[in-house]
From TrEMBL:
Described purpose of this protein according to its UniProt entry: Catalyzes the condensation of isopentenyl diphosphate (IPP) with allylic pyrophosphates generating different type of terpenoids.
Residues reported in the UniProt entry to bind substrate: 25-29, 41, 69-71, 73, 75, 205, 211-213
Keyword Metal-binding: yes
EC number: 2.5.1.-
Subunit structure: Homodimer.
Protein's UniProt name: Isoprenyl transferase
First-tier enzyme category under EC: transferase
Recorded family membership: Belongs to the UPP synthase family.
PANTHER family linked to this entry: DEHYDRODOLICHYL DIPHOSPHATE SYNTHASE 2, DEHYDRODOLICHYL DIPHOSPHATE SYNTHASE FAMILY MEMBER
An example Gene Ontology biological process: polyprenol biosynthetic process
Keyword Chaperone: no
Length: 268
């Protein structure tokens, strides 16, 4: 790691298995400081990298960063091109850190619309880190929660048409179909398939907006929400600690009377 971050005493904290971050506020941060929008995106990118390092250092297994939504294509071509080139330029650094720290890299979202060079870098990172289990980083790029679900449905329909499963066999919980065999889990058709902790325990949206904009629509059913006013470029590792401290004080009931999650939302 290029940043020296002091170890944090986590003895009295409940560390989430999975933290997902809606990376927001880059443009507003830049505007308030009289800087170009592009500078905001660059500083936000650097802050996100530090956030991931600190989270893994504190014992968080999975970190998801939503860096580009399916709606972000509606921004100016100049801004979109800058963002794609930013990801291309720095993806090798992301992979280098992942290899050093034995972190598995996943891409959440569509690969058919992003630049071929970026797509190839992502595929290379996924292949080279697929054997790692220590940590996970999900890069949600050209991702939308509704799009994730729609693509999952399309995959399930293909399996139905191929005779691999029956519609009534799909389930969101582990169980048996008519007591005979395990039901296919719908979650295994989503982008977070085969991950040990597919469901975020804590969702952070930087920048003060209190909405989720379709992020991980299926996966966040029992997630705790945290909405700091701080823009992403100013979201320091200390701000992450504040978020986890806040999470530690929550009473997670999952619709019941205890902190034991129902069904398949245990993240186990």
């Amino acid at each position: 790691m290029s940043d020296n971050i002091e170890n944090t005493n986590t003895e009295n904290l409940k560390i989430p298995n999975h933290i997902a971050v809606v990376c927001d506020g880059n443009r507003r941060w830049a505007k308030e400081k009289g800087l170009p929008t592009f500078q905001g995106h660059f500083e936000g990118f650097q802050a996100a990298r530090k956030l991931v390092r600190k989270a893994h250092e504190m014992g968080v297994h999975t970190v998801t960063l939503w860096v580009f939504s399916t709606e972000n294509w509606n921004r100016s071509k100049e801004e979109v091109d800058y963002l794609m080139n930013l990801y291309i330029r720095h993806f090798d650094e992301t992979l280098k850190e992942a290899l050093e720290n034995k972190t598995r890299v996943y891409h959440l979202g569509r690969k058919d619309r992003i630049p071929v060079k970026l797509k190839n870098k992502i595929l290379d990172a996924e292949e080279k880190t697929k054997g790692f289990t220590k940590n996970v980083i999900n890069i949600a790029l050209d991702y939308g929660g509704h799009d994730d679900i729609l693509r999952a449905i399309q995959k399930a329909i293909k399996d139905v048409l191929a005779g691999k499963i029956k519609p009534e066999e799909l389930s969101e919980e582990v169980g048996k179909f008519n007591g005979k065999y395990s039901m296919p889990l719908f979650k295994n058709y989503l982008d977070t398939k085969d991950q040990p902790y597919p469901y975020p325990d804590l969702i952070i949206r930087t920048g003060g907006e209190q909405r989720l904009s379709g992020f991980l629509s299926w996966q966040l059913a029992y997630s705790e929400m945290y909405f700091p006013e701080v823009y992403l470029p100013a979201f320091t590792p200390e701000e992450l600690i504040k978020a986890i401290e806040d999470f530690s004080g929550r009473d997670r009931r999952y619709g019941g009377n205890s902190q034991k999650s129902p069904g398949d939302y245990t993240n186990k």
